[in-house]
Every structure is written in C-alpha cells, then in structure tokens.
Amino acid sequence: MGTGTALQHVDVLIVGAGLSGIGMACHLTRECPDSSYSIVEARQDLGGTWDLFTYPGIRSDSDMYTLGYDFKPWTSDISIAPGPMIKDYIAETAAEYDVTRHITFSRRVVGASWDSDTSLWTVSIAHVGDDGEPTGQTDEMTCNWLQMCSGYYSYSNPHRPHFTDEETFTGQIVHPQEWPDDLRTREHLEGKKIVVIGSGATAVTLLPALADEGAQVTMLQRSPTWIFPAPNRNPITAGLRKVLPEKTAYRAIRKMNSWRTEYAYTTSRKNPAKLRKMINKQVTKALGDDAALIDPHFTPSYNPWDQRLCLSPDADIFTAIRGGNAKVVTDHIDRFDADGIVLQSGERLDADIIVTATGLELLALGGVTPVVDGEQINLAETFTYKSFMYSGVPNLGTTFGYINASWTLRADLVARYVCRLLAKMGDDDMSRAMPVASDPDMVQRPYVDDFPAGYMQRNIHLYPKQSDRDPWTASQSYSYDKKHLLGPDVDIDDGVIEFSSPVLVDA
Predict the structure, then answer these.
(1) E strand or H helix at 146, and its extent?
(2) 58-87: buried (b, 16+ CB within 10 Å) or exposed (e) per residue?
(3) Model confidence over 187-211: pLDDT tens digits?
(4) How far apart are CA 429 and CA 290, in angstroms?
(5) Residue 466 has what DSSP assignment?
(6) Helix/strand/coil percentages in the chain, nearest 5
(7) How many Å apart are CA 47 and CA 60, to the nearest integer?
(8) What are the residues whose beta carbons fall under 8 Å from the beta carbon of 157, sequence distance 6 or more?
(9) Does the domain at residues 7-155+361-500 carry the CATH identifier 1.10.1040.10?
C-alpha cells in the first residue's frame, strides 16, 4: 500500500484478516474471480481473534466442523481446537487460495465515505506501529464494495470494570485479552494462587488450563453459567471420516453438528426444562463424587441459551475440580485488599494473581462511522438487511456471526450472498445496491433479541435495528438463513434492495 495520500482502487476492500475476512477473500476467489480485492488488517498477522488471544488454554467454543469454512475441511480429529491450531488452519486456507499476498498488515480503517456520483467508497487507512497505536501516517483507497470483517468487539479496549480498592492489591492483575508473556509456562504458574473473576467461556477455559500448569485456581462467579461437557473426539465423526471421502465426511459432519446445535437452541426456547435436565445429568456425571457442587455452582437461575452455553471439552473443568487444583466460588466481590479479594459473604480469597475475565466491549464496524454523500450514518437509526447490510447505506456489507452457533456458519452464507450480489450487479451493469426501508412504521427490535448476556446488552443499542419481517431480520437460525440467502427461489432483486448506476453529467 502506498504512503501519504497515494490512492489505490479495488473492486472489493475487505477490512480484517481474521476468520471472516480470509473466508470472504476465498469466496471471492472461488466465485468472483474477475473481481479485484485487498484486505487491510490492523494487526501484524492474520487470524483476528486467534492472533489476539494467547492466554493459557485458548480454544474454540464451537466445534471445528462448523467453525471451519464450508469449502475447507477440518481434518483433525480434535473437535474443540486450541487457538494456535485454528490460526494455522486460517493461514493454510489463505495460502491455498493465494490470499496472503492481498493482505496489508498494520493498517487500520478509520473512515469510509461514499459518493453516489461515482459509486465509490473512499476509505481512510491509518498506519499502525508495533505498539498498536497510529503512527500519524495515513493512506486512502477507493472501492466499489466495502466488506467489514472486523468482528464485533474492540480489540484494544476489553471490558474491565473497576473493583473497590483494587489498587491496594500487591499481586498481579491481568485481563485475558492482554495476557502477559511472563505468565505462559509452568515455570511462571506452578504453585501460584490465581483467582479468575468471571464464568463465561474465557473463565471456563482458563480454569483447567491454569490448573494443568500447577496453579491453585479459583473461578469466582456472581452466578452460575450453563456448562456442557462434550467429547473432544466424537466417535460418530471418526467413523464417518473412516468410510467417506474427506470432503463428503466433512459436509455430513457439518450438517449433523449444525442441526444438533440448532436443535438444542430450539429446545431451550420451547422446552427449557428438558435441556436443563439433560445438561445437569451430564454435569453430575462429570463431577462424580463432587456432584453436590452442581446446585450452588453449576445450575443457573436462567434457562440454557438465555446466555451463551459454554462447552467443556472432555469435561476438563470438572476434571480439574475433582483433581483438587481448582474450585468454583459463587459470591459477590466486596473489595480487594493487599492479598486478594474480600467477598460480600465475609469470606476472602488469597491470590498472587487476579484474572479479570470480565468480557468484551461490542464495537460495530470496527469503530468506523460511515459517511454517505456527506452525511454521517448513525447505525442505530438503520435497519439490518438480511443481517449484513444497512438501510440507506449502499455497497457496504458486514459479517456478524451467530450467537447460538458457530460464527463461520453465517460468515460463509454472507460471503456467498455477497458474491451473488456482486455478480448480479456486474451482469446488469449496476454499480450501486442499497437496501431501502420504505415503511416508516416498521417495528423496531434490537439487532440481537432475547439474549440478555451483559456484554451484549451494554452496547447492542449502537447496532442497527431489526424488525418483525423479512428481509429486515437478523435470524439466529442457520437452516432458516441458508434457505433465505442461498435457496433456489431466492431473488437477489427482491424489490427491497435498490440497484442503480450514477448518471454523470458533463460540466
């Protein structure tokens, strides 16, 4: 990429070189080979989440047969994969489809302005130093289509509440999103008393990983989370891979796993008591002689999938508890002191290290505020179109995965739909596609509805709205989306998205 005010142009500019961005590029290569594209990535390497997070035990919270791409089989027997394996998979995919040479690293998109007279986005791109901060140097690029694959949370600002008297604690306070290099090995962790604040996927991952390194770990939670112990090597999966060709087996496993996930979610909505009973049965079995812990620490007051369900591969968190190096405490924090945490119950937890696994901060479009013909767009005042575009905003797509299933399931659908949309625009000689919400009285609902998780509720009001009718919905159903995005009866020109080309008048 050039320097200063050098201007370059591509048909499609992809923002982000993580799972979504690399997937989008591969789909373009496969389905729109005549379209030029570039990827800009703020970090120094590809991988996105799987490059950022490096805390002990970092792994997927979805099975890799659905978190993997639909066109690139996951060939390991391991279903819930460690972060480095996922990053290697992304890098291997990028290499296979010759994507890597299209990526410019250490570049952050800071502005995007659409001009209807030329049907172009002009994108402002800041150079980023090794410390992750802007250097002051900027570039510009133009593109016909802008695809934001920058994820849904802030890479630079994790959610980190302040705790009373935390400055008096004499040990080390760490956030998983900013894990230090000096806390990665057994040499640094063995014998340490570590308190992990939180009960989400990160905390559930950290507890057994730190215990495996010889630390004495306490997971401190305000309330329990639903945790489902699942085998990391499924015998059905292994059997299919033995008797079927690799791609055929992968498609079959992907279909089976996506159906099972959706079935569990649907059951949680229609018959939550059934799912509660099933999970409790598995947790009781995993705890063995410690099954009495299930009531205070592993039976939430809410129903499964009211918040995201946490996976425990091979029941690792329960194995760690039974092994004696890990425990769970359900209580509220009163304050920190020099040696640990004082709880509202009056008990205290000694700690050498406190890990604040307190969550993420949602960030729409990577923090970019789009400008259309000189007017700043408030995303919260728009409606989502098919979960990936915005009413009144032309030629801008975004990738936001599922809450109740693997991110990549929707990322693949969106990428394929964008490719079909671009192909239609090319065939019809159209340069602009803009969803138009013509009904001013359309019902407004949050982009992610019926999901009260704290990280979602804090900033979901900054996202576009959805309505009660298609195509203005953000479905949480892969089978529904697959039918309505890629089904044989789907018409790209649906009467809602407005296609046009600029009419240039000579001066």
Answers:
(1) strand 134-148
(2) bbbbbbbbbbbbbbbbbeeeebbbbbebbb
(3) 999 999 999 999 999 999 999 999 9
(4) 67
(5) B
(6) 35, 25, 40
(7) 13
(8) 361, 363
(9) no
* Residues 218, 328 contacting (CB under 8 angstroms): yes
Cα 424 to Cα 132, 432, 499: the distances in Å are 39, 11, 10
What's the whole-number mean pLDDT along residues 362-385? 95
> Which helix (H) or strand (E) is 327 found in, with range?
strand 326-330
Query: Residue 394 in contact with residue 372, Cβ under 8 Å?
Result: yes
Residue type, 133: E
Cα angle for residues 267, 59, 148 (degrees, 5° grid): 80
Which has the higher per-residue pLDDT, 205 or 156? 205
Rounded Cα gap, residues 55 and 342, in angstroms: 26
CA dihedral of residues 139, 142, 146, 148 (deg, nearest 10): 0
Q: What is the enclosing helix (H) or strand (E) of 111?
A: strand 107-115
Confidence of residue 6 (pLDDT cuts 50, 70, 90): very low
Write down the domain spans for the chain: 7-155+361-500, 166-356
Count of all residues that appear for the chain in the document: 507
Q: Write down the CATH superfamily of domain 166-356.
A: FAD/NAD(P)-binding domain (3.50.50.60)
Structure confidence at residue 395 (pLDDT) = 98
Q: Measure Cα distances from 265 to 225, 261, 386, 470, 481 in Å.
A: 16, 6, 21, 21, 15
Closest CA to 12 of 150, 128, 141, 158: 141
User: How far is Cα 126 from Cα 150, in angstroms, rounded to an integer?
Assistant: 15
Query: Is there a common fold for 7-155+361-500 and 166-356?
Result: yes
CA atoms of 6 and 71, how far apart (whole Å): 36
Write down the mean pLDDT value for the chain: 93
